[in-house]
Amino acid sequence: xxxxxxxxxxxxxxxxxxxxxxxxxxxxxxxxxxxxxxxxxxxxxxxxxxxxxxxxxxxxxxxxxxxxxxxxxxxxxxxxxxxxxxxxxxxxxxxx
Length: 96
Description:
Blueprint: H1 9-19, H2 23-39, H3 41-45, E1 47-53, E2 56-61, H4 64-72, H5 74-85, E3 92-95
Parallel strand pairs: 2-3
Antiparallel strand pairs: 1-2
Helix pairs in contact: 2-5
């Protein structure tokens, strides 16, 4: 016997994340996890902090030369991160 009032588990989890304002924290963890896959381990090791705020990803790097080099690949990095996230969440990246 199937219950027509049943809500899919995915919708329940999404609603809980929204109610308890946990979605941004979960997204932050996802970005941190995929960063090394997108840019490689060498760059990930030089990354000191990653923060997403209002669609802007702030990446703190310990090398000015690396900041400069990555700024040339910003569009590609944004595209790859969004692809890994499964949605257009990142509009810009600021390397600090």
